[in-house]
Amino acid sequence: MVDKPAPDATRRSEKSRRAIYAAALALVGEVGYPRTTVEGIAARAGVGKQTIYRWWSSKADVLLEAFLDLSRQAARDAGQEPYAIPDTGDLAADLKTVLRITVDQLLDPRFEAPSRALAAEGLVNEQLGREVVGTLLEPQLQLYVARLRSAREAGQVRHDVDPRIALELFVSPLAQRWLQRTGPVSYAYTDTLVEYALHGLAPR
Q1: What is each CA distance from 75 to 82, 84, 100, 195, in whole angstroms?
Q2: Phi, psi at residue 52, to the nearest 5°?
Q3: 133, 144, 158: which is closest to 96 by C-alpha?
Q4: What are phi and psi of 74, to 5 degrees?
Q5: What is the pLDDT of residues 89-118, one digit of tens each?
Q6: CA-CA distances (angstroms) from residue 159 to 64, 91, 152, 154, 156?
Q7: pLDDT (tens digit, 9 = 90+) per residue, 117-142?
Q8: Residue 127 and residue 134: Cα distance in Å, rounded?
Q9: Which of 44, 101, 105, 182 has CA 20 to 30 A from 84's CA?
Q10: Are 122 and 129 in contact (CB under 8 A)?
């Protein structure tokens, strides 16, 4: 009689986790965040509701972790390091490059629905809002800070510029336009934001 190997609990848990990620992202895209439930995620993933509550306290927590995992996977598939901003010595070109990548992500159907869901829910759910800012937004903003600080040290921007405020000149308008759908989100738009931010509105 051949002994069967013992079930690999780690592998089983990882398979369930992946199924839950996929279910949460799919449901948000199909029915929207308000109609997505833990019960629906569990049914879609083929797991018990108790399995989800063992790992997460709410559907918001599931979605945030699923979205972070999706972002990391997309970066790996594209051969990119997560949260990377180039430093070629040309500040305008570097900012335009990373903002174009951001445009691609914002318009990617895989990212758009969960991104909007997390942004909207974070406005009314204070705890989730802090988690979204801390785990998703702030790491990206800090790389803008580092790139602008490098440009300041190289004399490419004024010495008295506060990088944390300066980055809002191009990041915030993009986020507002995308969230409120007030106009097209495109490379031309983000390129223009960089030009306006770096050169101002006065005649050159």
Answers
A1: 6, 10, 14, 27
A2: -65, -45
A3: 144
A4: -65, -40
A5: 999 999 999 999 899 989 988 888 898 888
A6: 38, 15, 6, 9, 9
A7: 888 888 888 888 898 899 889 998 99
A8: 11
A9: 182
A10: yes
